[in-house]
Amino acid sequence: MNIHEYQAKELLKSYGAPVANGVIVLNADEAEAKAKELPGPLWVVKAQIHAGGRGKGHFKEPEAGEGGGVRLARSAEEAAEQARAMLGKTLVTVQTGEEGKQVGRVYIEEGADIEKELYLSVLVDRALGKVAFIASTEGGMDIEAVAEETPEKIVTVPVEPSQGVTDEVAEKIVQGLKLEGTAAEEGKKLVRALYKAFTEKDMAMLEINPLIVMPDNHIRVLDAKVSFDPNALFRHPDILELRDLSEEDPLEIRASEHDLSYVKLDGNIGCMVNGAGLAMATMDIIKHYGAEPANFLDVGGGATKEKVTEAFKIITSDPGVEGILVNIFGGIMKCDVIAEGVLAAVKEVGLSVPLVVRLEGTNVEKGKEIINNSDLDVISADDLEDAAQKIVKAVKG
Ligand code: ADP
Ligand code: MG
Question: Which SUPFAM superfamilies does the entry link to (predicted)?
Answer without folding.
Answer: Glutathione synthetase ATP-binding domain-like, Succinyl-CoA synthetase domains
